[in-house]
Amino acid sequence: MKKRFLLASVALCAGFAAQAAEPTFDMQRFSGDIRTLSSDAFEGRAPASAGEVKTVDFLIQRMKEAGLEPGGPQGANGVRSWTQDVPLLKSDITGAPSLSLTVNGKAKALSQGKEIAVRAALTGDTAVSLKDVPLVFVGYGVKAPERDWDDFKGVDLRGKIMVVLVNDPDFEGPAGRFGGKAMTYYGRWTYKFEEAARQGAIGTLIVHETDAASYGWATVASSNTNTMFDIVRDKPRSAHSPLEGWIQRDVAVELFKASGLDFEKLRVAARSADFQPVALKATLDAAYQVKPETIISKNVLGRIAGTLHADETVIYSAHWDHLGVGAPDARGDRIFNGAVDNASGTAALLELARAYKAAPAPTRSVLFLAVTAEEKGLLGSSYYAANPVWPLARTVGVLNMDSVISPGPAKDFTISGQAKLDLLDLLIAEGAKRQRTYTPDPKVEAGGFFRSDHFPFAKQGVPAISYGAGDDLIEGGKAAGKAWGDAYVKAKYHQQADEWSPDWNLEGTRQDLGLLYAVGRNLADSRIWPNWSQEAEFRAIRDASAAERQ
User: Fold this and answer.
1) Taking the CB of the first residue and of the last residue of the chain, which one, N or C, has fewer CB atoms within 10 A?
2) CA distance 343 to 340
3) For the whole model, what pTM was predicted?
C-alpha cells in the first residue's frame, strides 16, 4: 500500500467519525431474524425450494420495513424489482447410486456418503453409467504454465478418472512455486473439477484429508450428496465431467496399496514439479440416474440512493442460501438450518440497512445484496458480477459478510484469505480507532479468499473483502477463540446442528457491525476509489476501467 493513501484514509476516517454518531444496532432483533431464517419452516433455505420462496419474501418484507428502495433490474415499465433472476442448472441424483471399485479382479462396493461422495452430474446428462473406467493418480491435478508446473505430463485422460489430492503442492512443504502454505486457486476443488473437464477426463475423485481441506468428512458428505447447482452454460462439459466426487482417505490408502503403491510416498512425490502421473491397477463402476432441470433462483437487492453521486455504489453482501434438506443425522434431523452460515450474515445485512436508513442519506448509493447459491459455488454472486445491475466500474467496493456470529468481543478482526488492497487499509485504520487490530487469516491454507461471495467481484477487479470476526477474545484470548471456531467447524459447519441459540454472546457481533458500518459509510460519503496493491492480480482489471470513474 502507498503510505500517502493510508494516511489519507486515516484522516478521512477520522473526519467521518466527527460528523456521524455511532449507529445503534438492535441485537435482539438481529437474533430474531437469524432465528426466523434458520427455523425448520425455512427448510434449510435451498435454492429452488419452498424455503427459497419464504426467504426471498422475508428479505423483501424486511427491506421494505427498513425503508429501502428496490435495487434490482428495471422492468419494461421502468420500475425496479426487488430481485434479480439467476438462471441455474439444478441437478439431483434419483435413487441410490451403485458405486464400486475393482482392484486385481476383486470388486468392492462403496457406500455413498460414507466412503465416497459423488455429486449429481452438472453436464445436463440424465444418467451416469460407467463400467471398468481406469483410475489415474495425477497428484494435485494442477496445470499452471506461469509457474512451470504440469501434473499431467501429456497423459491422455479421455475415458479415465483422475484421482487428485486436496489443496496445492506447497500445502505441506516449504514455500515453492505456489508461494507457501496459503492456498492458491489451484488448490480449490472447483479448479480441480474444471481442469478435469479441460483434460477430457470422464471423472474426478478428490482424496479427502481433513487438514488439507480444512473440514471433516461430514462436511464433504453433506455438501456433495444433495441437490447440485451450476450457472446455465452453453457447453456444460467444458466445465464439468460426468462424475465428480470425493473419496475417504482410508479408501484411497487401501486402493493404492492394492495397486502395489505407497500412498504416503506418492503424496510426497506430488509436491515436486517432476512428478509423473501413475496409473492405478483399479477401475470404477458407477451407475445412477440424474434429474437435471433449469430453474430461476433470486438475488435480493435493496438500495439507498446517494444524494450527490447516485451512480456510484458501495455494496454490502451476504448469501441467504444454505444446504436445504438432506439425509438424517444421528438425531434424525434432516434440515440444514444454517444459522451461523449464513442466516447470521443475512441478518447483519438487514441490521446495517436499518442503521443507514436511521442516519442522513449518504452521498454515494449503498446496495444491500443478498445472493443465492453460495453453497453451490458462489453462483449468485458470480451471476451478479457477470450481469451487474449497477456498473462494476463505478462500484466503490464490496464488504461481504459470511458467518458473522462470534463467541464474544475480540481485540482483533480478520478477512478471509490473503489480499492487499486499500479497502483493507481503511478497515485497519477504522479498527485502530476502536482499539482493534487486524490479524491475517490464520488458516490461509484453507483458501478462504476463494470461498466467499467477494471473490467473483475481485475477479472483475472490484475491491472486495469478506469480513471475519476476531479470535483474540477479550475474555479467554486466542485460545478461547480458536476453541470456539474449531468446535463449530467440527460439529456444526455444513451440518444439521448449525442452529440458532439463545445463548450467543452478541456483543462481539455488535462491535463488528459498528466497524463494518463505519468503513462502508466512510466510502459512501467520500470521493475515495480504493484499488488493489500494485502486485495484486486484480489490479490490471480495475485500472482498465479507470476512465469510467472520472
Assistant:
1) C
2) 6
3) 0.86
